Amino acid sequence: MPGLLIRWLTLTAAIILAAYLINGIQVSGFFAALGAAAMLGILNAFFRPIALLITLPINILTFGLFTFIINALMLKMVSGVITGFQVHGFWTAVFGALIISLVSFGLNSLISDNGRVTVIDLRHKGGDHWE
């Protein structure tokens, strides 16, 4: 359960950062971003796999780049449902989805399955051997 809460907060931070970096994304406050992160998580859990399956042929043809379009559509859907969170324009949603995906991936890669922040500590054992 702590892992879910931490991932929810990382997605919230990613949404706030995207709103800070892109003019067309507006968040009225922390709780609006928290609600948007919750709704985006729900949409990504239930509807994104179906959307990816339906658009699989075009996704293969674009080498997976169409996934950003699906993420942008999910972001626009969240914008329509959550008050205090607005995304103006399609390309704003695409760039916002790109930033949110990258930041969320980066932060979530530091979190283990049990919800703890992990750091990989490599030690040089001589030659080309690291442990």
Count of individual beta strands: 2
Structural class: mainly alpha
Detail the poorly predicted runs: none
Order of helices and strands: HEHHHHEH
Work out the helix count. 6
Number of separate structural domains: 1
Widest sheet, order of strands = 1-2
| Largest β sheet strand count, sense and barrel closure | 2 strands, antiparallel
The helicity comes to 55-70%
**Percent of sequence in beta strands:** under 5%
Would you summarize the structure shown here?
By secondary structure, this protein is mainly α. It has helices spanning 2-21, 30-46, 48-54, 56-61, 66-81, 90-108, and strands at 25-27, 85-87.
Structure description:
The chain has one domain (2-108). It has six helices and two strands. It has helices at residues 2-21, 30-46, 48-54, 56-61, 66-81, 90-108, and strands spanning 25-27, 85-87. A two-stranded antiparallel sheet has the order 1-2. The protein is globular. The two termini are 31 Å apart. The chain crosses the membrane at residues 6-22, 29-47, 53-75, 87-107. Keywords: Membrane, Transmembrane, Transmembrane helix. InterPro entries: Phage_holin_4_2. It comes from Desulfatitalea alkaliphila.
